[in-house]
UniProtKB/TrEMBL annotation:
GO terms for biological process: methylation. This is S-adenosylmethionine-dependent methyltransferase. Residues 10-20 have a biased composition (Basic and acidic residues). Keywords: Magnesium, Metal-binding, Methyltransferase, Transferase. It comes from Nyssa sinensis. Belongs to the methyltransferase superfamily. Type-7 methyltransferase family. InterPro entries: MeTrfase_7, MeTrfase_capping, SAM-dependent_MTases_sf. The lineage of its organism: Eukaryota, Viridiplantae, Streptophyta, Embryophyta, Tracheophyta.
Length: 348
């Protein structure tokens, strides 16, 4: 299941709560006001922004507009009203992303030049020292691929009867965490080349709190339940058990410590800020079950159809929702974390 053929990957557990996006917007504005040094970026007349894992919009348009306004304010606050830079925005996602829909829904009054950049953000995408601001939200928990050991029958990491690593043996968890470390290494290496010294990068990513076992992260609990629904269907003969055994979801929820380790290992970025975004929910458990089932379906439907065919989708997500309704205690016991990370490309 490599990137070129992966179906559109929406976030299966992205919170719909406004609290997360409001807090992220505030932190983004503060990041630009406090940490962007105009001297570092003003040698170019064009200020270049990239949103990595942009999907179809409209979130990416809101983010880009916030960045642009923040940068203009910063120029003005330094008495640099004219000339303010021109802005060029690069929207990146897999080549399979529907860029036509993205381009058709661009805001009509946008004040920036636009380019679409297809390809995996785990590889190089831009010329050297060309980007001033990089943004990526709810995308970096997607691995570049399923670790190969977990689908090899002869490997101690073979993940039989499960579709994810939580509640699996240590070997499976290790295979996923190793893949994550390798992917983050590639991501940071590529961005270190592409960003100007002093450029800023904001990453927003669902994560697992430090020291919390994988099996207690709420997003992992959700995948466990989805996996158990598939196994129920295998027992009833609706899907082949072998197909469940060979199906694994290429998502990893790293802890802040794991992310920090990757950043320190790379060495080209300073961590300017790392914070949890508050997620205040007002939904009751039944509405939560419905919402989680809907967002899991939006995120996973493409993968499920590719592996098992379209016929099982309704029944699968129906039984997923029912199991969630019965297991409502997971909302109290499961741990969720949405991380906001601000990095600055160090001066060489
Ligand atoms: C849940 S969506 C997030 C969209 C948007 N950033 C937001 O916050 O609403 C995740 C996006 O990341 C993209 N993505 C995942 N892995 C990627 C990769 N290696 N390279 C580029 N895009 C990737 C997916 O295709 C998907 O469009």
């Amino acid at each position: 299941m490599g990137p070129p053929t992966t179906p559109q990957t929406h976030e299966p557990h992205k919170p719909s709560e406004k609290s997360v996006s409001d807090a992220a917007k505030l932190l983004l504005n503060e990041a630009i006001a406090d940490k962007l040094n105009i001297k570092d970026v003003s040698s170019s007349k064009t200020f270049r922004i990239a949103d990595l894992g942009c999907s179809l919009g409209p979130n990416t348009f809101f983010v880009v507009q916030n960045i642009l306004e923040g940068v203009e304010l910063k120029y003005q606050s330094q008495g640099l009203n004219s000339p303010t830079p021109e802005f060029q925005v690069f929207f990146n996602d897999h080549a399979s992303n529907d860029f036509n829909t993205l381009f058709r829904s661009l805001p009509v009054d946008k004040q920036y030049y636009v380019a679409g950049v297809p390809g995996s953000f785990y590889s190089g995408l831009f010329p050297c020292a060309s980007l001033h601001f990089v943004h990526s939200s709810f995308a970096l928990h997607w691995l570049s691929k399923v670790p190969k050991e977990v689908v090899e029958k002869s490997s101690p990491a073979w993940n039989k009867g499960r579709i994810h690593y939580s509640n699996a043996g240590n070997e499976v968890v290790k295979a996923y965490s190793t893949q994550y470390a390798m992917d983050m290494g590639c991501f940071l290496h590529a961005r270190a080349q592409e960003m100007v010294c002093g450029g800023l990068m904001v990453v927003i990513v669902p994560a697992r709190p430090n020291k919390v076992p994988h099996s207690q992260a709420i997003a992992n609990l959700m995948f466990d339940i989805l996996g158990s629904c598939l196994m129920d269907m295998a027992k009833k003969g609706i899907v082949e058990e072998e197909k469940v055994d060979s199906f694994n979801i290429p998502i990893y929820y790293a802890s802040p410590q794991e992310l920090e380790a990757a950043i320190y290992k790379n060495g080209y970025f300073s961590i300017e800020r790392m914070e949890n975004l508050p997620c205040v929910t007002t939904h009751d458990n039944l509405s939560k079950a419905k919402l989680f089932a809907l967002s899991m379906r939006a995120g996973m439907e493409g993968f499920i159809k590719e592996q098992f065919g379209p016929e099982i989708v309704d029944e699968l997500f129906d039984s997923f929702r029912k199991k969630l309704e019965e297991a409502s205690s997971i909302y109290d016991s499961g741990k969720a974390l949405y991380l906001f990370v601000l990095l600055k490309r160090k001066i060489n």
